[in-house]
Design brief:
This protein is α+β, with helices and mostly antiparallel strands. It has helices at 2-23, 26-48, 55-66, 74-95, 105-119, 137-141, 199-210, 230-244, 269-275, 320-336, 347-360, 415-423, 447-452, 481-484, 489-496, 502-516, and strands at 152-153, 163-164, 260-266, 280-281, 287-288, 293-298, 307-316, 368-379, 382-390, 394-399, 402-405, 444-445, 461-462, 466-467, 473-479, 523-529. The longest helix is centred in the N-terminal third of the chain and has 23 residues, at 26-48.
Length: 531
């Protein structure tokens, strides 16, 4: 009997341990040990014979041991009730879903199509275009019941931690449909809602995109990237430009003077911040960055389809002089050009326009602008181009893939310009690069410097007139020095020679200059597609 009783006590202790683990409350442990101590004392008294015992008393102790219950905290019951309520809410939301009506004709047609597809002969293309869905099948994907409470779900947040789940109203089936505004690819005659006509194409698309889908990783400070080689940099841009313009179609020139043209400019705030190039003060007296480049395009020029003008003006000290030049110079050129025939050389008209423009800009004493003007004209079926410029904005013509410079950079440290300034009586120190802060020796405006420093002038450089060679002359580029500080004329031609759109040409060159890290100035690029 003692052995059986001891075995019962062992079972009881095991039961006590499991119940204690379920409750996880220390106060229950104290109460349990209290009751256990009393029971064990009674058992010891019975076994030792200190008390008079009989079978009824011993049976009573056994009954107490067997019927011993550990009190369950009320908090556990409340949690269970909460879980039950939550379960009922979710069950109600699930019951509100609208299931497809499998008795409708559209559903039966979909099932018949699936049966014929699976039982028919094998198709090499795995064509899925013949399969359809029931009309009301989309309703099953959208739940009309919205979540009332926000839940905490696992996932990567902004800082890699847990995020809060937003109210989810169901899946919108329209996200799986092709947009109506964009036509489907012409190479696929029968496609499904995803724009794919076969499982093979779907597999290929997934394989193509799988390489670019990576789990988010925190970048390491120790990671370093090998610098991009100069040749690889231009090669990559050429390839990107070629791909971007595959679908761009420019209409043939026909009887027009030029085929097309495009322009792009950028203030280049990041580059200006590196050298703290602030030319203007705001109301608080702080320097601000501003766009001082301007450009002027008139094609046809003066309502004459056989003439065209392209100009770039780069202001210094402020933008006012460059802005004024965009209005004054075209007006002066129209005054000096003959209304009929120009002839082989347009140089005298361009020179007169530059000088009269500078005279009208006498008010700009402490600021000025460089100017590069490229003029196209056609007479008796022959097309010509000629350039006039002051300052360091340059123009290049692409002939047989080679760049030809049509302008001249008037910089103080250029050998011929330095010799001219010294011959005019200007005193220059050895290695001087500026005249009273001005980095160019010729410009529009800057009349204070012109009146006090000999040799500074608005006399333009005139290129020789070029006869446009059909099939050989393809592109013309006119740009401010912000572009030419980062590349040569040949580099620019090589970067855009495969492009078909002049707007993309100018954008490519501006992006290259911005990405080079060498440009600290405003950038303006005009690209002209000649043929």
């Amino acid at each position: 009997l003692g052995y059986k009783f001891a075995r019962i006590c062992g079972l009881f202790l095991s039961h006590m341990e499991s119940r204690l683990l379920q409750t996880q409350q220390y106060r229950s442990l104290a109460s349990l040990l209290d009751n256990l101590r009393d029971l064990l004392n009674d058992w010891i008294g019975i076994v030792s014979g200190e008390h008079h015992t009989d079978s009824e008393e011993f049976s009573k102790v056994l009954e107490q041991l067997l019927t011993f219950q550990v009190p369950v905290p009320q908090k556990k019951e409340a949690k269970q009730e909460k879980n039950a309520d939550q379960f009922m809410d979710e069950l109600a939301a699930l019951s509100s879903l609208e299931l497809p009506d499998f008795s409708s004709e559209s559903t039966q047609a979909a099932l018949d199509a699936l049966e014929s597809f699976s039982s028919g002969p094998a198709k090499s293309s795995n064509d899925l275009s013949s399969l359809t869905l029931p009309e009301n099948f989309d309703n099953f994907l959208v739940s009309p019941v919205k979540q009332k409470k926000k839940r905490r779900v696992g996932g990567l947040g902004r800082h890699g931690g847990r995020i809060t789940k937003k109210n989810f109203g169901g899946i919108d089936p329209s996200m799986f449909k092709a947009p109506e505004s964009e036509p489907l690819p012409t190479s696929h005659t029968d496609t499904d809602g995803f724009g794919l006509s076969s499982l093979d194409e779907l597999t290929a698309a997934l394989q193509l995109n799988s390489a670019s889908i990576e789990s988010p990783k925190t970048p390491s400070r120790a990671q370093t990237h090998a610098p991009l080689a100069y040749d690889d940099f231009f090669k990559g841009l050429n390839t990107a430009s070629e791909v971007a313009n595959e679908t761009v179609e420019i209409s043939p020139r026909g009887d027009k003077l030029l085929r097309a043209h495009g322009v792009r400019d950028d203030m280049n705030r990041r580059g200006m911040q590196k050298v703290k190039k602030k030319s203007q003060l705001n109301a608080q007296g702080r320097g601000v960055y501003q766009m001082e480049d301007t450009h002027y395009i008139e094609c046809p020029f003066d309502n004459n389809k056989d003439r065209a003008l392209f100009c770039v003006f780069d202001g210094h000290v402020d933008k006012n002089a460059a802005t004024a030049a965009t209005t004054i110079f075209p007006e002066e050129l129209k005054k000096h050009l003959p209304s009929r025939e120009i002839g082989y050389d347009c140089g005298e008209y361009l020179r007169a326009a530059f000088l009269s423009t500078d005279e009208r800009m006498r008010e700009y004493e402490m600021e000025g602008a460089t100017a590069t003007a490229v003029f196209f004209w056609r007479e008796e079926g022959v097309r010509y181009v000629q350039t006039a410029n002051v300052g360091d904005s340059s123009a290049f013509l692409c002939r047989n893939g080679k760049s030809i410079m049509l302008s001249f950079d008037h910089k103080v440290n250029e050998a011929s310009e330095r010799a001219r300034l010294l011959a005019a009586g200007l005193e220059l120190n050895e290695g001087a690069t500026r005249i009273n802060g001005l980095a160019v020796s010729r410009a529009l405006g800057d009349h204070f410097i012109k009146d006090n420093f000999k040799g500074v002038t608005a006399e333009p450089y005139l290129s020789e007139p070029f006869v446009i060679q059909d099939g050989n002359d393809s592109i013309l580029i006119v740009a401010s020095d912000g572009l030419w500080d980062t590349m040569s004329g040949q580099d620019a031609m090589d970067a855009i020679k495969k492009s078909k759109d002049p707007k993309s040409m100018s954008s490519t060159l501006v992006n290259m200059a911005l990405s080079s890290g060498l440009c600290n100035d405003n950038i303006t690029v005009i690209a002209v597609l000649i043929d």
